[in-house]
TrEMBL record, chains A, B:
Residues 5-344 form the Aminotransferase class V domain. L-glutamate binds at S8, R41. Pyridoxal 5'-phosphate binds at A75, T76, W101, T149, D168, Q191, N233, T234. Pathway: Cofactor biosynthesis; pyridoxine 5'-phosphate biosynthesis; pyridoxine 5'-phosphate from D-erythrose 4-phosphate: step 3/5; Amino-acid biosynthesis; L-serine biosynthesis; L-serine from 3-phospho-D-glycerate: step 2/3. Its cofactor is pyridoxal 5'-phosphate. The modification N6-(pyridoxal phosphate)lysine is found at K192. Its EC number is 2.6.1.52. It comes from Danxiaibacter flavus. The gene is serC. Binds 1 pyridoxal phosphate per subunit. It catalyses: 4-(phosphooxy)-L-threonine + 2-oxoglutarate = (R)-3-hydroxy-2-oxo-4-phosphooxybutanoate + L-glutamate; O-phospho-L-serine + 2-oxoglutarate = 3-phosphooxypyruvate + L-glutamate. The lineage of its organism: Bacteria, Pseudomonadati, Bacteroidota, Chitinophagia, Chitinophagales. Homodimer. This is Phosphoserine aminotransferase. InterPro entries: Aminotrans_V_dom, Pser_aminoTfrase, PyrdxlP-dep_Trfase, PyrdxlP-dep_Trfase_major, PyrdxlP-dep_Trfase_small.
Amino acid sequence: MKMHNFNSGPSILPQEVLNQAAEAVLNFNNIGLSLLEIGHRTSWFQDVLDESRSLIKELMQLGEEHEALYLHGGATTQFMQVPMNLLDDGETAAYCDNGIWGSKAIKEAKLFGNVNVVASSKDKNHTYINKGFEIPATSKYLHYTTNNTVEGTQWHALPETNVPLVADMSSDIFSRNMPFAKHSLIYAGAQKNMGAAGVTLVVVKKDVLGKIKRAIPPIMDYRIHIENGSLLNTPPVFAVYVSLLTLRWIKKEGGLAEMEKRAKERAEYLYNALDSLPLFVPTVNKEDRSFMNAVFVMQRPELEQPFLDECKKNGMVGVKGHRSVGGLRVSMYNAMPMDSVKAFVELMTEFNNKNL
Amino acid sequence: MKMHNFNSGPSILPQEVLNQAAEAVLNFNNIGLSLLEIGHRTSWFQDVLDESRSLIKELMQLGEEHEALYLHGGATTQFMQVPMNLLDDGETAAYCDNGIWGSKAIKEAKLFGNVNVVASSKDKNHTYINKGFEIPATSKYLHYTTNNTVEGTQWHALPETNVPLVADMSSDIFSRNMPFAKHSLIYAGAQKNMGAAGVTLVVVKKDVLGKIKRAIPPIMDYRIHIENGSLLNTPPVFAVYVSLLTLRWIKKEGGLAEMEKRAKERAEYLYNALDSLPLFVPTVNKEDRSFMNAVFVMQRPELEQPFLDECKKNGMVGVKGHRSVGGLRVSMYNAMPMDSVKAFVELMTEFNNKNL
């Protein structure tokens, strides 16, 4: 049976990327060795790193002033690493609290300086994105989460401010065009549109670094990673390579404009169904809906499990909501074929008509 | 041509591990999805984690008081994380300086407390392991590197002390039986005997934690990783799985006793040749020689490049010494077949006889 993979992360990847990754585990570029068995300082791997970091900058339309780094530790490490590098004791950073990940970032930043929560959607269970809030011009930076994987909201316009922008783009990076160059720092854990779990992308504008007094451990210091070209220590070689394969696929398919077009088509198709089927109730403010993760509940909660059972029977995985919010969630990342969305809508429609 | 892989890391892995890893990238356990596409909180991945952590404890003969964690960031992150968790401001830890990695660990520890270098082999270019040195009983812990990948030395007996032992075992873990339970903390980056790069093993005795006043960022706090069963954030799923495959292979082949037997056989065969061929000169104190990484130079340095060219012609990769020390190095990790060592010795002998 063909599986329909709605996992929120780790999540669906293009089949050709999986085929190429499997091949590289057996015989990398036909050199007679596995990708897992070659030194990270060989020209073989240097080529992977170079091509990959150059593709990132090309797709994001970034110039010389931005550096792309592959680091360890996931976005959760960035919750600590960002303030460790950018926020001195006594200084204040502005943070937006629009969901579980933003809240975690806030908690960690407080270990390094003052945090001013300039926007929060907590009053309505994070079902919307704040607009028109004040950001003091003295803020060291503004931190926000472009897409809230768990709550199903997404920023469809940049926060308006002149302070340096820092964005956690883990769950919608490379899914749309954005004014990337306007950001001082962008980070993303790589388990959605960017490849396999185990590597983190950090894009940083060099002029934002070196402005604090704290001593930073080398492995946490962005400047040292820049100096070492993402090779301070052994990188997560396989995850970096899968990221390269995924970036190549994105470019070949038409780049971020095409990814955005597909994401909108999938999301519109799904949200239209959610809006028209009485049994399924989307929970998020219409204009803030995520194109990546659609979150909804059943009008009659007792039907949730029977519906999930139907999904399972039809080879649809990953439809359960995050353990912290419950309900249902369908994730539709770059590699998600429209056919899977159509199959899911068909199942919802059938279930709706049978149980209404 | 069959390749002989003497890479120091990332390095040779068993062929059946590579085959199984490639298969999992296409179709994990025959579930119809790739290992890269499944959630880390599914029972599928939980089973991987559980089996893997239990195998680690079984192979290392550890009881309830030790926890095995899979973390991000490589051993280099542990250089920071160990003192961050164990060493308070004003306290002193004892460190052994026996090579490049130990020196780096020392440098990072100084950011968190005082470092007392109780042993150093720097006077002789790290070509030996110190013995019979003093370790003050007031030291918070003693840190040492069991195998020096770059310099080719290895501790063949434990340092004698009653203070808590902390060991970086990155390059010889799972290659021999050791009194693992006597250690309070063991860490190892996983690019040698433990699987694919991108995951770090930390084995920690719980009673050593929670004894400092510093606030530790959650992603760096061993206690929080223990509470979360290595699932605080998305783990490097693929690297964890390759580690499981490698551990299964070690157990099936006969466990650490068998790995040790094979390592000794390989090392003896190689060092015997090095001791008898005048053109090749081992640089390390005989009794401290590493069973994993044999370091040597050419009696006539101008022959180094011609010899490396011969290696290349014969499909032997990874023979060049580390960029920081030069010379030659042959790494012989668990998966290295005796045939590769024999082929290398044959080539050395031929080269010796032709150029003497």
